[in-house]
Amino acid sequence: MLQAIGHILPIALAVAISSVPIMATIVILLSPKGAQTALPFLIGWVLGMATMVTIFTVGAHAIPSPRSDRRPDTAIATAEILVGAALVVIAIIEWRRAMRHPSDAMPKWLESVDKLGPWSAFGIAFALNARPKGLLLAIAAGLAIRAPDLSVGEAAIVIAIYTVIGASTVVVPIILALFDPKGMQPRLVAMKDWISRNQATVTALIFILIGVFIIGTGLAGL
C-alpha cells in the first residue's frame, strides 16, 4: 500500500494545484451567494474526484495481469507511459497557446460561476473532474492504485488519501472563508490576481513534471 501511496502523492498534488477549481472556488467565495454555494461546490468537487478515481481504479483492475509474478505488468506500464505523454503534450499546447495570446481575463464560463445556485454549483464542481487533464490524472491514479495489486480495503484508503490531498486547495479556502469571510476577502482577491497572471506558466510546468514522473513510473514497470 505504501508503494501506491507514494505513486499517487504527486498526482494528487497536481490535482490540488490545478488552477481551474481553485479559481472557481475563489470566484464563488467572492460572490454575494458565496455562503450558499460554497459548500455544494465543495461537496461536488470531492464526490466527483472520488468517483472518477474509483471508476478508473476499477477499470484498471480489469486489465489482465501477467501470469507470473516475475514478469513485468507491461499493460499497466504502457498505459502509464501513454497517460504521462498525453499530460506533457496537453500542457505544452496550452502553454504555447497562452504565450501567443496572453490575457489576464478569466474564461467566460468562469465569470458566470458567481451567479450559480447551490445545485448548479454542485453540478459544475462535479463536472470539473471530467476535464481532459482531470481525467488523465484520475486514470494515472487508478493505474497507480492497481499496480501493487491492493485489496479492496487498501485501495479505498489510498483513494481517500488521494481525494483529501487533491481537494485540499478547495476545502481550506472554503472553510476559512465561511468562518472568517471579511478576513479572507483580501487574501482571496490577491490569490485571484496572482493566479490570473501566472496560471498558464505554473500549470504547464507542473503538469509537464507530473507527466514526466508518470512516464518514468511506467518505464520502471517494463
How would you describe what is shown here?
It is built from nine helices and no strands. It has helices at 2-16, 19-30, 34-61, 74-100, 108-111, 118-128, 132-146, 152-179, 181-220. It has one domain (2-220). Helix 4 (74-100) crosses helix 9 (181-220). The longest helix is centred in the C-terminal third of the chain and has 40 residues, at 181-220. It is mainly alpha-helical.
Keywords:
mainly alpha, 222 residues
Largest sheet: none
For the terminal residues, how far apart are their CA atoms?
20 Å
Estimate the helix proportion, in percent. Answer: over 70%
**How many domains would you count in the coordinates?**
1
Global outline: globular
Topology as H/E string?
A: HHHHHHHHH
The radius of gyration is 18 Å
Averaged pLDDT: 87
Number of strands: 0
Q: Give the low-confidence spans.
A: none
Supply the number of helical segments: 9
Strand content: under 5%
Structural class: mainly alpha
Summarize the structure.
By secondary structure, the protein is an all-alpha fold.
Topology record:
Layout: H1 2-16, H2 19-30, H3 34-61, H4 74-100, H5 108-111, H6 118-128, H7 132-146, H8 152-179, H9 181-220
